[in-house]
Fold this sequence. Notes:
Largest sheet: 4 strands, antiparallel
Helix content: under 10%
CATH architecture: Sandwich
Radius of gyration: 19 Å
Oligomer: single chain
Order of helices and strands: EEEEEEHEEE
CATH topology: Jelly Rolls
Structural class: mainly beta
Amino acid sequence: MASKQIHLREWDDNPYPTNTFRIVTKMTNLGDDMSSKSILGFFINYFTDTYLVDESSNFSSGCHVSVGYRSDTNTPFQALTSFSTENTGSPKGNIYKEVLLAKQYEDIVNIQLEIKAVVTGSFAINDFGLLFRVYNKISSTKLDED
Length: 146
């Protein structure tokens, strides 16, 4: 069986020039490994220094971000949501984007996110997160017959 290469880098706050990037989070139980969750939405706070369309040159700039998820590290990422600043008319600067999902993803106990982007100009993610609700709390009780 062929081994899979994993490339890790130490976090560096210095800018790194690229027009594509990929971030994968660790697998998380969202604070409770005994409950299922419904994923309702995704939010992101990001920075871009470019306007979206320069009418004088017909040059489109900005970013396209896609977010994937999986609940098991042995399965491929599935699409959760995506958005493009080209479609939203977003200005440059710090931008908060919240995406309510058209359908909720149910019965999630553990989740890992993958954020990929194609960018023009400067782009930085300040923070991101999930909108979710917890349900089906599992509890157990030991009964003694004494």
